[in-house]
């Protein structure tokens, strides 16, 4: 039997009859940028997450950059985050000129360890960026308490956590601002790149929306004021008429071109209807893995307060290389996220990072052991059983 790591083709076949007319409408209408499809998606997502504002953008990395800019993170500011994540988390921090400060993670759920955050806080610290790794929410009450104590913003990296919950609240509503990715392999994946920023704050939403479209027009002026710019700088002497709005032609901030394409919004609107069904199936598969997989490898331990969306099912093995080889030889797709923790990344050695090369022993241990097993909504029970049997056979035959 062959079990792929992920099967996007089967999923597409199941929703093709809804996706294709939606995309064809946009092609016929030539309404590629902004408009109804983007607004409809944002509104549906606001309802799904129970959040006041959703702003679509080009990808998850941009969502993080927009979140940092909205929180007014400036060059030289320090942002505390985890070393056990995808590169983009700290890349976004560095790309606004701020300094990523890596804090070690927990053995249980691989997320940032709140016990170690306070000792990393300095007078330069302006924000914490928790990452709900593999779709399991961080210990947000502890993180928010520390943030409040030191007056820090909390910018969630929710790229892997769409639909996950912490104490009954959805990821993306747990800090000041949430940043999501719709990369095709995510639980809610587009037909290309996409992302969104979520917040309950009118002010942060205004700034995100301004930055994502070149800091232009009235919203750019409003954002500049919110960021502490002088109001006289943004007034315009030119007269606003029905035909001519001078605001429209002024840019008030150096922003980005980071819009969510209408085609992506249309595809995502279709898939959003199935997201809970997809995540429930992932959760069933995880339950089968917990029950069937040998106790010789270490499985994730999540608190009862979290409901993960099971973006990945990640086990830990002292025989990582051999296990991956064995799985591949026996037709089981697998991954090894993330073999290089970010404090060991070459790109951060050259940058003004707080602790490149330092020892963060838990992240390093986990990075050397993680093996990701296939988990996707279209996976059949017999495919799950085959993965379990193959892993268990490896432990019986090879160890
Ligand atoms: C944890 C994390 N942060 C950020 C990103 C960046 O998202 P994107 O690839 O959409 O830019 C990803 C996904 O790829 C991710 O997994």
Any overview of this molecule?
The protein has helices at residues 8-29, 36-49, 60-70, 88-95, 140-149, 202-211, 217-226, 231-234, 262-272, 275-292, 320-329, 346-350, 361-367, 381-398; strands spanning 53-57, 78-81, 99-102, 125-129, 153-157, 165-166, 169-170, 177-181, 195-199, 306-307, 313-316, 370-373. It is globular. The strands form three sheets. It has a seven-stranded mixed β-sheet with strand order 1-9-8-5-4-2-3, sandwiched between helices. A three-stranded antiparallel β-sheet has the order 7-6-10, with no helix packed on it. α3 (60-70) crosses α6. 47% of the residues are buried. With 399 residues, the chain is of the alpha/beta class. β4 (125-129), α5 (140-149) and β5 form a beta-alpha-beta unit. The protein has 14 helices and twelve strands. The longest helix has 22 residues, at 8-29. It has two domains: 8-215 and 255-272, Type I PLP-dependent aspartate aminotransferase-like (Major domain) (Aspartate Aminotransferase, domain 2, 3-Layer(aba) Sandwich); 275-398, Aspartate Aminotransferase, domain 1 (Alpha-Beta Complex). Bound molecules: pyridoxal-5'-phosphate. Residues 59-61, 85-86, 88-89, 131, 157, 159-160, 181, 183, 193, 195 line the site of pyridoxal-5'-phosphate.
